[in-house]
Amino acid sequence: MSKNDYYMIQGEDYGQMAIQVLQAAGVAADIADKSKRIGIKPNILGAKKASEGAVTHPELVDGVLTYLKKEGFHNLVVLEGAWIGDLTSRAVRVCGIYDICKKHQVPFVDLQKDAFRTVDAAGMPISVCEEVFRLDYLINIPVLKGHCQTTVTCALKNSKGLIPNSEKRRFHTLGLHKPIAHLNTVIRQDFILLDNICGDLDFEEGGNPVVMNRVLGFWDPVLCDSFAAESMGYRPKDIAYIRLAEQLGIGSTEVEHANQVVLGEGIPEKETMRHTKRVSKLAAYADAKDACSACYGSLIYALDRLDDAGLLRGHRAGSVCIGQGYRGKSGTIGIGRCTGCFEKNVDGCPPKAVDIVQFLREQWD
Ligand code: SF4
């Protein structure tokens, strides 16, 4: 195992996919001591269902608890503090994670009710909930999704659920980026199981889910967030909190030098997502034939970046081809390896949104 490794699996059996990622990464061997207190930190932002694109899928928490118990770990706790606008006690029930905790007889700790202490986070005093200091190992389960202030939210920002509400308010007045980076100098993130199933296009509260049907595993939260940024069409160093976290020594932004381990079949199921109005508007630029979810999702994120830059205007609907149905076929502009016979295409299986953005900019500028 190297801090540079990351694991990726695609499909729809999310609980099983979580177990496969943990097994491939060797998380049990990394924890080693069976008596260790292990915290599992999902993203339970508010009273939402995971299908809306805002909160962690309960199937992933189920997979993690099943794996850990089977490996002989029993000192487990699921912990979270919802955002200021909601009660954790309500949110954890609505999203289904409370039932998963009950099923495994694992306690859920509501951090909105926890005491806290103020610590020095690389020169910045930050208040952190007491329960965090009782943990010997933390498995973070963030959702890869957009955010109205920080553009991307993932592993580093998911740590904000481990601080009291008063500190969350202060973080917002400080502009989020700097305190998020500093917080992660005192929060451990031993393993990150990334929920990239259907995170939101650009808003942390959900409403416009983009189906990718992927689960990933990372050892390095900065690498995880850098991957997330590229998956949404951004360069990691353009996101201030990711850049700052690297400068503080928390991890690396160099996704291109990381080692990707693909698990399972490699080729995912075909995209069948039902689009919201907003996503449908972007999807209208694509002519999809049997596209995989991850490929199609990357294109949606890329089109959203191009829309932000005002570059979609003047282009006709269906002008970008994507999907397995184009294998061996000719055409003009294609996305992904399946369109390799087109006049122009961006390679990758699936390609990253950041590469699609650059490719389409070159064609359309
Ligand atoms: S390039 Fe083809 S096979 Fe690969 S993810 Fe895209 S649609 Fe699927």
UniProtKB/TrEMBL annotation:
Stretches assigned to the DUF362 domain: 38-229
From what superkingdom does this record's organism come?
Answer: Bacteria
Q: Name one Pfam family in it.
A: DUF362
Protein's recorded name: DUF362 domain-containing protein
What is the species of this protein?
A: Eubacterium plexicaudatum ASF492
